[in-house]
């Protein structure tokens, strides 16, 4: 955090409004935090100076998913414009095209899978230095199976054959079905959206926790199907329901509204969400090339400022915890230029509930998290989790040291840029310092057992975490 940010944080915590800060206030704040020889006049200028933008006309890419919302809202509510930015946001056909267009400069940045900056930086698939200074959201995905597979799961576990089965639903009742397919010489096909997507790792985690092998990647074969009980293939998110209905796949892991679309069309049943697989897991990020950031540092900070305001708007609630703006967000997202699904389908999950079946509608206020729980902060431990899964399934072909995981996380995730944006918002009175991690936070979330299998994840011990799995590489 900059000197201005530290001083203004102290002032805000003591109840002093940033727009009324005086030189005396700053000097007093500086003394409290022992900033030494501080030029208060220079600090005040730093806190209120407008960013000198290197580029104002920007084009960002996105995929038609609910969690593109921060980009859409930052544009539609004028937050980009407030920062002096003229932003166009453009839907992309798939994640590979989106990444390629960021790398070659056709897009300034994009709504990315959390694993894309990581996969690109380590050279899996495409090699490029991509960074992220902003996490767009937590959670937001589900795993859906066809009606036929759901009926067989209910036969295997009668406790599922009720209007409201107990959640979370594991893959235990799916395992005998997969084994039947193998014995009959038939492939059990399921879909996910991209090899380095959260969806790929989540569906693998869900399957493997019930002893179903989702396949390995090797240096010679990057299809990820070696030794697989279930064959996972890439399907673009908007095409998931139609591909399921056609019988090409028997289930899938995807973001909203494409699980809800299966419910509405009565072609499938969501059996679990990624909130149950890993509570408050990172999902999408805003990504740019390292070169773009180096050429446009102030513009990057301005973009992050606007996104933070959008995330806060999306998560705003009244005194009873009811979302204030989500219904409006659903209406905006339903436009054909954005998600292009009916608002009634989008709001199935966006307004605090999740529809598993028409008889099983559950309150799930944290299914989509855009701001609270420090969801916007680029936590190093989130990056390390993705790296452990890339190693577990063979996308990283050789074992690495614990230090390597930490070094890679600090290369790709950039909380320093996030802090610059937050400092400016605090100084403008648009952000409470209590709404972001404290200045001394090291970027590693506390160890957690909030996983469907109850395993503990500590980002500071990636090798110990890997060693605890029965399926996949253990080191």
Structural account:
The protein is α/β, with parallel strands linked by helices and about 475 residues long. About 40% of the residues lie in helices and about 15% in strands. The protein contains 21 helices and 14 strands. The chain has helices at about 5-15, 25-35, 40-50, 70-75, 80, 95-105, 115-120, 145-155, 175-185, 200-210, 240-245, 260-265, 275, 290-295, 295-315, 325-335, 345-350, 380-390, 400-410, 415-425, 460-465, and strands at about 55-60, 85-90, 110-115, 130-135, 140, 140-145, 190, 230-235, 250-255, 270-275, 285-290, 355, 360-365, 370. A five-stranded mixed β-sheet has the order 2-1-3-11-4, with helices on both faces. A three-stranded antiparallel β-sheet has the order 9-6-10, with helices on both faces. A two-stranded antiparallel sheet has the order 5-14. α1 crosses α3 (about 40-50). It is globular. About 50% of the residues are buried. Residues about 1-5, about 5-15, about 15-25 and about 40-50 have low confidence and may be disordered.
